[in-house]
Design brief:
Elements (H helix, E strand, L loop, with lengths): L2 H13 L34 E3 L2 H9 L1 H4 L4 E4 L3 E2 L17 E3 L4 E3 L2 E4 L3 E2 L2 E5 L2 E8 L2 E4 L5 E3 L2 E5 L2 E8 L2 E3 L2 E4 L2 E5 L2 E3 L2 E2 L2 E3 L2 E4 L2 E5 L19 E3 L2 E2 L3 E8 L2 E4 L3 E7 L3 E9 L2 E4 L4 E2 L2 E2 L5 E7 L3 E2 L4 E2 L2 E4 L4 E7 L3 E2 L3 E2 L2 E4 L24 E3 H4 L10 E3 L1 H4 L7
Length: about 400
């Protein structure tokens, strides 16, 4: 994805203005805040959350800025069916700033079809938390080029997602398209998964379309978030098919410096041009920006991919294109890999860095004397892989304990 699109995306997310809330309870004084909070009860804290038992209550959260722009805690208390009418994302044109506890319940039948910039169940999660929620049977379609499309949220900035599952769903868009979230910046995702089928053009992933460690303010400068620890994805997975043009990955389409651990992808990955990986389409290592150097490199630890991967140049069983500064530890891939410039584990180097990116090539990638990562030369159909960070082994060898000694 061109760097301009990243900066435009994040500038847009910060610059999005508040929209007027639709007050469904005119008798509730504005001083009481969100209309679900009557006379200060419940308090809207984690210990005493505002309850969301049905679609009507969820629509209040979605449409009233006093709800979604306040740091209230919400808790869903029953399954909610959103079928029958298109859903307008929570905090459309703005950001959800509170916490949402799904209580282990489901949201089913959601359909979002819009040309808006950032769409999903939520528009954008801004410093928010979402946990213990299942979304099933969703259909999310962006009808024009945009900046973030996902079942849970179009984008998230400085947010956290834990134990959220997407089942039996479909996501269609152009840029930054993900089964769970379209674009994630300085955010944490833990114990979450998606089995959605995902289609897009650029930066398309089974879980996340584009994951970034840099957030820009409205003027395009780096924000203070750039000084925080790297964002992480932990104990998470994607199992649905992913298709696009370039920067297409089973888990993440395009990834800035961050850490992905104990995670996997099993879906078939198809890119019409290149940068296609069973786990990551394009992975950047250390990024050097004007006035700021991200010293912590990208890291993949205890990860794997099993889906078939096909595309043009830069096609790998685990990573399509890899930039310097990344480390890969205890990873493997077994899926069939086909394309020009294909590799068993890694397809090739990410080249052509320009502008604010000053770190290119493969030289900084971990090249331990005894690689801890492997690809299956039989099932992948590939005898070689880019770089020296992995070893190709046959199925029999990979089933032999001595291979890992």
């Amino acid at each position: 994805m061109p760097r301009r699109r990243h900066s435009v995306l994040l500038a847009l997310l910060v610059a999005l203005g508040m929209v007027a809330g639709l007050t469904v309870r005119a008798d509730v004084a504005a001083a009481n805040g969100c209309p679900l909070r009557i006379d200060g009860v419940p308090a809207g804290t984690e210990a005493d959350p505002l309850l969301v038992p049905d679609r009507a209550a969820l629509e209040v959260v979605a449409s009233d800025s006093r709800c979604y722009e306040s740091q209230y805690a919400f808790k869903q208390t029953a399954d909610i069916d959103l079928s029958g009418a298109d859903w307008t994302p929570i905090a459309m044109g703005s950001g959800f700033n509170g916490s949402y506890d799904g209580g282990g319940h489901r949201i089913t039948g959601m359909t979002v079809e819009s040309g808006a910039d950032v769409i999903g169940l939520f528009s954008q999660l801004s410093g928010a938390t979402v946990n213990d929620l299942v979304i099933s049977g969703a259909r999310v379609t962006r009808t024009a080029p945009g900046y973030g499309v996902g079942v849970l949220a179009g984008a998230m900035t400085g947010a956290s997602i834990t134990r959220v599952r997407v089942l039996n769903s479909t996501v269609v868009g152009v840029d930054n398209v993900g089964g769970l979230v379209g674009g994630a910046c300085y955010s944490q995702i833990n114990a979450s998964s998606s089995e959605a089928s995902v289609w897009g053009s650029v930066s398309v992933g089974g879980l996340i379309g584009v994951a970034m460690s840099r957030c820009f303010d409205i003027a395009g400068g780096l924000s203070a978030q750039a000084l925080l620890p790297l964002p992480t994805i932990t104990d998470s997975a994607a199992t649905g098919p992913v298709s696009g043009e370039t920067q297409v990955g089973g888990l993440i389409g395009d990834m800035d410096p961050m850490v992905v651990s104990r995670s996997f992808a099993t879906g078939v990955v198809t890119a019409s041009t290149g940068s296609a990986g069973g786990l990551i389409g394009r992975l950047r290592g250390v990024v050097v920006n004007t006035g700021f150097v991200q010293n912590d490199p990208s890291a993949l630890v205890d990860v794997y991919a099993t889906g078939a991967v096909s595309g043009g140049s830069g096609v790998g069983g685990l990573i399509g294109q890899l930039e310097s500064g990344a480390t890969v530890t205890r990873a493997y891939s077994v899926g069939r890999v086909t394309g020009i410039g294909a590799g068993g584990l890694v397809g090739g180097a990410y080249l052509g860095c320009a502008g604010i990116e000053a770190s290119c090539g493969i030289s900084g990638v971990s090249t331990a004397a005894a690689p801890t990562s492997f690809w299956n030369t039989i099932t992948s159909g590939q005898a070689t892989s880019y770089g020296e960070i992995a070893s190709g082994r046959t199925t029999t060898q990979l089933q032999t304990l001595g291979t890992y000694a």
